[in-house]
Amino acid sequence: MCKSGKEIKLCTCVPNGINTVIHHKNSRKNRKKRRTEFTWTLEKCMGFSKTTMDGMGYMPEKMLTVDLTNEKMVADLNSKNCFDFDYEPNEGDSLRIFTPGGSYEKHLSFIYKNKQWIAGSHMPFMYEMQKINFGNVTFDGKTE
């Protein structure tokens, strides 16, 4: 019996407008600059932050779509190289996957801990993070 699914690839191609700051998201001029694809950011944990900040962080979701869930991502990250560049994970590395549309509220979050990826996130403002890479999430149809 064939089971259809989608293979997830984390590509380093620069998402359209990912580095563009949109000051007024509802203006006609900036409507077409909104992200239309899922994006990801990979960061290295540099340790505890040396500064104190107050703010609000968003808790990660367990599922963004049928093909983007914590369970599927953890299984893929731990069984194969999902990245399109040479990358060896280090203890404390963090991967976040964001929804399209310019909102950073809804996202999945993963930490590399004890030689495997797990669903989880670093406490906001508590750790100093350094960006390693970023890009688009792509889906390739496959049949198992």
Describe this structure in words.
- The model has no long low-confidence stretch (mean pLDDT 78).
- A 6-stranded antiparallel sheet has the order 1-6-2-3-4-5, covered by helices on one side.
- With 144 residues, the protein is mainly β.
- The N and C termini lie close together (9 Å).
- The protein is 7% helix and 35% strand.
In a few lines, what is going on in this structure?
This protein is mainly beta and 144 residues long. Helices cover 7% and strands 35% of the residues.
Cα distance, first to last residue?
9 Å
Put simply, the count of helices is 1
Helix proportion range:
under 10%
Largest sheet, strands/sense/barrel: 6 strands, antiparallel
Radius of gyration: 16 Å
Element-by-element helix/strand order: EEHEEEE
Low-pLDDT residue intervals, each spanning 5 or more residues: none
Instruction: Give the quaternary arrangement of the chains.
Output: single chain
Q: On the 0-100 scale, what is the average pLDDT?
A: 78
DSSP E strands, number = 6
Strand fraction: 35-45%
Strand line-up across the major sheet: 1-6-2-3-4-5
Q: Based on helices, strands and strand pairing, what is the structural class?
A: mainly beta
General form: globular
